[in-house]
Write a structure and sequence with these properties.
The complex is a heterodimer. By secondary structure, chain A is of the alpha/beta class. Chain A has one domain: Rossmann fold (3-Layer(aba) Sandwich), CATH 3.40.50. Chain A is 23% helix and 26% strand. In chain A, the strands form 2 sheets. Chain A has a 9-stranded mixed beta sheet with strand order 2-1-3-4-11-10-9-6-7, sandwiched between helices. Chain A is globular and about 40 Å long. Among the domains of chain B are: 217 residues, PurM-like C-terminal domain (Phosphoribosyl-aminoimidazole Synthetase, Chain A, domain 2, Alpha-Beta Complex), CATH 3.90.650; 212 residues, PurM-like C-terminal domain (Phosphoribosyl-aminoimidazole Synthetase, Chain A, domain 2, Alpha-Beta Complex), CATH 3.90.650. A 7-stranded mixed beta sheet of chain B has the order 8-10-7-11-9-12-13. Chain B has a 7-stranded mixed beta sheet with strand order 23-25-22-26-24-27-28, with helices on both faces. In chain B, strands 1-2-3-6-4-5 form a 6-stranded mixed beta sheet. The chains are: A alpha/beta, B alpha+beta.
């Protein structure tokens, strides 16, 4: 299985995602922002970082990159897409996921590890988890405070599209939302960084299951 | 403006101007004078410190590059090398803290990059005035934001450092940033310009008027008027910095460059003249070819501008097309701005017309000042310290809580949580331990890094304090299990033109050099920041030490947190605590006096080496050194960083007064927690290093010698302060 990792100018977790994908047993392919080509990958990770320096608004410039056209088409066709941190911000800016990420309520960058709970397993990126499973994941962001209007929030909750919820909310996100998916459930966005806990030497490899999920999901849907 | 006014405004003395006249054989024009001004500033030319710096040992078995390049280099193994350096950005941070700190990070990252290494870790050694003062709070908050703002965005994890709040730094904060990079030994590049006819390419951000005469500004005292120099502070763009890192590494990977140099203080001038002087060649730069971001810039402004995020490369003419293409891929400006010549001059042209020419070797050869070393009067007064006049506290538990709550001893979590310390997925020992630990992917190897210095100790006993800074770094690396290899330093002092500061500089260097020799850790890079003075006086002498060490097997390391119930608590080292110069004396009694313990370097080495051997053998996973606050604070830190929330009960060793035993400071001592059944093995590794079993881990309380008994929750409440919240004035002195 080939998993593409988009590299925007200013992405800085692209190499980390690549490492985690390879550790999970998939082939990792770099997708350059200026090339409108997904190189026939089976799934795409939009990694964390500061695409275009977070100028204007996190993700606001990256969403106009050439690679985004094919990515949007891929997502609409049901291809598995995972946005992590800045990747989630890019996906909301591109309207592949609803809502927006605001400044953390305490107005500081926060880098720590937080306890989270997996809420659904019906996405390509959470299929190996059990519902209600608790995992501790790293967060590192300035704008991780998930916001959506009342109706969108109700839809997300009602339709079971909250993928991951904070048990220790580090940023003021509404409904403790740490991760969501689109209606079709193939596009997932997570504020925490599963790729940072991909090796026991880093204190945990609990995040590897996110990438292993998409592998087993692909096998199951073949 | 008269000639004298002009060169004085540029920071040159009469003597220096005369020397320029003599060297040049004619009067320099304004551009040429500017070149001398920046290259002969202390920041670039080390004119006051160079003779003293010769005391440092620079050689070692693992040393691949000592001082004289953009950064030092040591070998790790498996073909890997560590590139590292620490640098100050004190003056810019004093007037514009966010950008000052941010560009400090950008600058040190580029120093490491210029050696061909990928920057993989950052550390920061910070000093501010007390937090009761609003200006100090502002400086602290903005410096931390600036470090995070740049480091987080560029994607290099900030994994360690230190911060202290002391009146001597009010108005003159210290912002020292250290960067460590990784490179294959075979891929090291250097800054030497070679090959007549080779081209000089400038790439990165465009050049503007920012940061003109920044180096000259950095080499002067801070005054009321310094605020007016805010326009002298450069503005950082971490996004361009990130592009520059990837672009440079991409060019090097394709073998397109002959040599590489970052642009720091004094911009193109400094970089080009250093490259030329090192290669014994000349360089011609045509300022008209430099991509500028504003119109109407004078040639002299273009060549000394300190606009950030730029690199200068020397390359063979046939590679130029590919180099420009790589720069374009990373959306950076790039242009051929000059060429290497045989004439040995740094020559600045504008549209082909020579506008200034100076032999590069003159610029690289700043005059040296050696001054008389005179012992300051204040030292005599400080030594008159009688411990018997220090009363004993009544309630030791409340003293401990007050110590843990003090800004100099409380948790650093509010600081390091603002730094991305995990990006890169290499951080094995995150902030909060004695040193940061990083792995090297694809190998079992790793490295550790720490920054250390205790300014008060250096003030009270410059030579002992200098030695203690090196010893503490050595001990901290050993406590996590890494073999200390070499160090970089950032020498922050007052004006060398004043006798006290010069004595402090000379004596600290003496003490550091002695410790480096005994401990076998050479100095491979560094930076000098003098003139750290305000109207109120000089900062504490603060020779910050940034040391790196190597793990053969990074999986075998130790951290301070207690891991199990029932472990034996062992104190290793010759425990002879003192109150002189201690945090206890300052926090509880408001006194800064006495002689701190002089480090016993042989004993330091024996203790640290023994503990490290035990960790490397897999016997030990819990260790923490005794530092500020002594035994009671060190034990508290071990319990408070215990993920399982485990406390301990220990006895006090006899011999010292109770408050001295609890809070007095002793060099060369390390606390360990080890499972009972491994005690025998541990003792074998400790060998002849003095050690005593003083207690055991367990429970949710800390009990020390029947004097302290406190629940971990109440200690945690004291320890977990939010340093960024407005501070009430300290409750004064407790006893």
């Amino acid at each position: 299985m080939k998993i593409g990792i988009i590299v925007f100018p200013g992405s800085n977790c692209d190499r980390d995602a690549l490492y985690a994908v390879e550790r999970a047993g998939a082939e990792a392919i770099e997708l350059w922002h200026a090339d409108a080509d997904l190189k026939s990958v089976d799934a795409v990770v939009v990694p964390g970082g500061f695409s275009y320096g977070d100028y204007l608004r996190p993700g606001a410039i990256a969403r106009f990159s050439k690679v985004m056209g094919p990515l949007e088409a891929f997502a609409k066709e049901g291809g598995p897409v995972l946005g992590i941190c800045n990747g989630l911000q890019v996906l909301t800016e591109a309207h592949l996921l609803p809502g927006a990420l605001l400044r953390n309520t305490h107005m500081r960058f926060v880098c720590t590890r937080v306890r989270t709970r997996v809420e659904i397993r019906g996405t390509p990126w959470s299929s190996l988890f059990t519902v209600g499973e608790e995992i501790t994941l790293p967060v590192a962001h300035n704008e991780g405070n998930y916001f959506a209007d009342e109706r969108t929030l109700q839809e997300l909750e009602y339709e079971g599209r909250v993928v991951l919820r904070y048990l220790d909310n580090p940023n003021g996100s509404l409904n403790d939302i740490a991760g969501i998916c689109n209606e079709e459930r193939n596009v997932v966005g997570l504020m925490p960084h599963p790729e940072r806990v991909s090796d026991p030497i880093l204190g945990s490899d609990a995040g590897l299951k996110v990438f292993e999920s998409v592998l087993s999901f692909a096998v199951a849907t073949l | 403006m008269s000639i004298q006014e002009t060169y004085t405004a540029l920071g040159l003395s009469d003597f220096e101007y005369d020397r320029i006249l003599e060297l040049m054989g004619r009067a320099p024009n304004y551009l040429e004078l500017s070149l001398f001004s920046v290259m002969w500033s202390e920041h670039c030319g080390y004119k006051n410190s160079r003779p003293l710096l010769r005391r440092f040992p620079n050689e070692g078995a693992r040393v691949l590059q000592g001082p004289g390049e953009n950064a030092g280099v040591v070998e790790v193994g498996d073909g890997w090398a560590l590139v590292f350096k620490m640098e100050s950005h004190n003056h810019p941070s004093a007037v514009e803290p966010y950008e000052g700190a941010a560009t400090g990070i950008g600058g040190i990252i580029r120093d490491v990059l210029a050696m061909g290494a990928r920057p993989v870790a950052l550390l920061d050694s910070l000093r501010f005035g007390p937090l009761e003062d609003e200006r100090n709070r502002y400086l602290f908050r903005e410096v931390v934001r600036g470090i995070g703002g740049y480091g987080n965005a560029i994607g290099v994890p900030t994994v360690g450092g230190e911060v202290e709040f002391v009146p001597a730094y009010s108005g003159n904060p210290l912002v020292n940033a250290m960067c460590v990079g990784l490179v294959r030994v075979d891929d090291l590049v250097r800054a030497r310009a070679v090959g007549e006819g080779n081209l000089v390419v400038l790439f990165g951000a465009k050049t503007g008027r920012d940061g003109i005469h920044g180096a000259t500004f950095a080499s002067d005292e801070l005054t009321e008027e310094s605020e007016e120099k805010r326009p002298n502070v450069q503005v950082g763009d971490p996004f361009a910095g990130k592009m520059l890192v990837e672009c440079s590494l991409s060019m090097l990977e394709r073998d397109l460059l002959v040599s590489l140099q970052d642009l720091g203080a004094a911009g193109i001038t400094s970089s080009a003249s250093e490259m030329a002087a090192k290669g014994g060649v000349g360089i011609e730069i045509d300022a008209a070819f430099v991509p500028v971001r504003e119109s109407g810039m004078e040639p002299w402004q273009i060549v000394i501008s300190e606009s950030q995020e730029r690199m200068l490369a020397i390359l063979e003419p046939e590679k130029v097309g590919e180099v420009l293409k790589v720069a374009e891929r990373f959306e950076l400006a790039a242009a051929v701005v000059g060429r290497v010549t045989g004439h040995g001059d740094l020559r600045v042209l504008y549209e082909g017309e020579v506008v200034g020419t100076v032999p590069a070797r003159y610029l690289a050869d700043a005059p040296l000042y050696e001054r008389e070393v005179v012992s300051p009067a204040y030292l005599e007064g400080n030594r008159k310290f009688d411990i018997e006049r220090v009363p004993r506290p009544e309630d030791y538990s409340s003293v401990l809580r007050a110590m843990l709550a003090h800004p100099n001893l409380c948790s650093r979590r509010p600081v390091y949580e603002q730094y991305d310390h995990e990006v890169g997925t290499d951080t094995v020992i995150p902030p909060g331990a004695d040193a940061a630990g990083m792995r090297i992917k694809g190998t079992s190897l790793g490295f550790a890094a720490t920054t250390d210095c205790r300014g008060r100790h250096c003030y009270l006993d410059p030579e002992g304090g200098g030695a203690a800074a090196v010893a503490e770094a050595y001990r901290n690396l050993s406590c996590v299990g890494a073999e200390p290899v070499a160090l970089t330093d950032c020498l922050n002092f007052g004006s060398p033109e004043k006798a006290d500061a010069y004595y402090q500089l000379a004596s600290c260097i003496e003490g550091m050099a002695e410790a480096c020799k005994t401990l076998g850790t050479p100095v491979v890079s560094g930076n000098v920041s003098l003139y750290n003075e305000t109207e109120k006086g000089a900062v504490y002498p603060t020779p910050a030490v940034g040391m790196v060490g190597v793990f053969e097997d990074v999986g075998r390391h130790a951290t301070p947190g207690i891991k199990r119930e029932g472990d034996a608590v062992v104190l290793v080292g010759d425990f002879r605590p003192f109150l002189g110069g201690s945090d206890y004396l300052e926090i509880v009694y408001g006194r800064i006096a006495g002689a701190p313990p002089a480090p016993d370097l042989a004993s330091e080495k024996e203790v640290s080496d023994a503990v490290r051997r035990a960790i490397a053998a897999g016997v030990l996973d819990t260790a923490h050194d005794l530092s500020g606050g002594g035994l009671a604070v060190a034990l508290s830190e071990m319990a408070l960083s215990s993920e399982a929330g485990i406390g301990a009960e220990v006895l006090l060793l006899p011999g010292a007064r109770q408050d001295v035993a609890l809070f007095g400071e002793a060099g060369g001592c390390i606390l360990l927690a080890v499972p009972e059944e491994r005690l025998g093995e541990l003792k074998e590794h400790l060998g002849s290093a003095p050690h005593s079993r003083i207690g055991r881990t367990g429970g949710e309380r800390l009990k020390v010698g029947g004097l302290i008994e406190a629940g971990l929750d109440e200690l945690r409440e004291a320890y977990e302060q939010d340093l960024f919240e407005p501070h009430a004035p300290e409750g004064g002195h407790l006893a």
